[in-house]
Write a structure and sequence with these properties.
This protein is α/β, with parallel strands linked by helices and 311 residues long. 41% of the residues lie in helices and 18% in strands. It contains 13 helices and 14 strands. It has helices at 10-22, 47-56, 74-81, 92-106, 111-121, 149-155, 177-184, 196-204, 207-214, 236-242, 249-255, 273-278, 293-310; strands at 3-7, 28-32, 38-40, 43-45, 127-129, 137-142, 145-148, 164-168, 188-191, 219-223, 226-227, 230-231, 262-266, 282-286. A seven-stranded parallel β-sheet has the order 5-2-1-9-10-13-14, sandwiched between helices. It has a three-stranded antiparallel β-sheet with strand order 7-6-8. Helix 12 (273-278) links the parallel strand 13 (262-266) and strand 14. The longest helix is centred in the C-terminal third of the chain and has 18 residues, at 293-310. The radius of gyration is 18 Å and the shape is globular. The structure holds guanosine-5'-diphosphate (GDP) and calcium ion. Guanosine-5'-diphosphate binds at residues 8-12, 14, 48, 51, 192-195, 199, 223-225, 227, 231-234, 236, 288-290.
């Protein structure tokens, strides 16, 4: 089958790795989030795409879940000495990715071509796709006013209360041909256990991407990022609440209303099953915490088998 995954960063990369272990690479497409992108020191940084690519290349720092393994930070130290703001931790080898990306962008090469080229160079065999080549930026409104996503997430460590979230550029954003095709031709369309509000929603905020998911003939399954009503890591639980959703699997399902046929939830949350089914969703209850490679592969396998059942 052709499998297409919508994914954010760390949570998305875990399921992506599991899928890469069980799918033929040419039949696996991953559409990553670009709305977290940010310019640092004149360089275009694309954190979620890099997390996906580094994970699939097995170059990721496994302890952190992001950045490259065996990294040093000498360039950042040099920038600090020059008086630059260095709250975004960018490693020396990681900088090479950003230099390369920025250089190609300046040459007018499509961001999605650049992302696939980086993936190819690092030995990633799957299709690494971007939802759009246009500018799309998540902005978070806090008591300090509107912050760029990385300012909220990294500089402010997700501490300020979130009042509003906006995806600047979404209404005008055109989908990439590759992402549309991957959605239209998918047999199974998966949504990773990523932050629904700031990792998946910006992908779906591209109007034609959303329409393609709505109209897809694929079996559409999301894996919940919540376990026991909490995130494994990060602010998705608080953000769901801030956006008016319940902080539960029901809230995750509501955020994907009209876009999914089934939801994979953790066995700890088996009590949520009946209500989700009453709302017309198919539900798979299993262990969804992915720590080891085996757990990633097993969840990917079970989710694909479940998609077969859902058809
Ligand atoms: P980011 O872009 O790096 O912030 O990462 P994502 O948006 O892709 O993923 C963040 C979400 O992944 C959080 O809400 C976590 O709860 C969820 N997550 C992380 N690891 C796991 C896991 O092993 N299992 C499940 N079910 N969710 C996870
Ligand atoms: Ca992210």
């Amino acid at each position: 089958p052709r499998v297409t995954l919508l994914a954010g960063g760390v949570g998305g990369a875990k399921l992506a790795e599991g899928l890469a272990a069980v799918c033929a690479p040419e039949r696996l497409s991953i559409i990553g989030n670009v709305a977290d992108d940010h310019e640092f020191h004149g360089l275009w940084v694309s954190p979620d795409i890099d997390t996906l690519t580094y994970s699939l290349a097995n170059l990721i720092d496994r302890q952190q879940g992001w950045g490259l393994a065996d990294e040093s930070h000498r360039v950042l130290k040099g920038l600090e000495r020059l008086g630059c703001d260095t709250w975004m931790s960018l490693g020396d080898q990681d900088m090479a990715t950003h230099i390369f990306r920025t250089q190609l962008r300046h040459q007018g090469i499509r961001p999605s071509t650049i992302a696939q080229s980086i993936a190819d160079s690092l030995g990633v065999k799957v299709n690494m796709l971007l939802p759009t080549d246009d500018r799309l930026q998540t902005l978070v409104k806090t008591e300090q006013g509107w912050l760029a996503f990385q300012e909220y997430f990294v500089r402010e460590r997700c501490q300020p209360e979130v009042r509003e979230i906006r995806f600047e550029g979404a209404d005008e954003a055109r989908p990439t041909f590759e992402a549309l095709e991957a959605i239209e031709q998918a047999d199974v369309l998966l949504i990773a256990p990523s932050n629904p509000v700031v990792s998946i929603a910006p992908i779906l905020a591209v109007p034609e991407i959303r329409r393609a998911v709505e109209n897809s003939r694929a079996t559409r399954i999301a894996v919940s990022p919540l376990i026991g009503g909490h995130t494994v890591k990060g602010p998705a639980d608080r953000m769901l609440t801030a956006m008016g959703y319940r902080c539960s699997n029901a809230g995750v399902a509501d955020s994907y209303a009209g876009l999914i046929d089934g939801l994979v939830i953790d066995e700890q949350d088996r009590a949520d099953r009946a209500a989700l089914e009453a709302d017309g969703l198919q539900v798979l209850t299993t262990a969804t915490l992915m720590t080891s490679a085996e757990e990633k592969t097993r969840l990917a396998q079970e989710t694909l088998a479940f998609a077969g059942v859902c058809r």
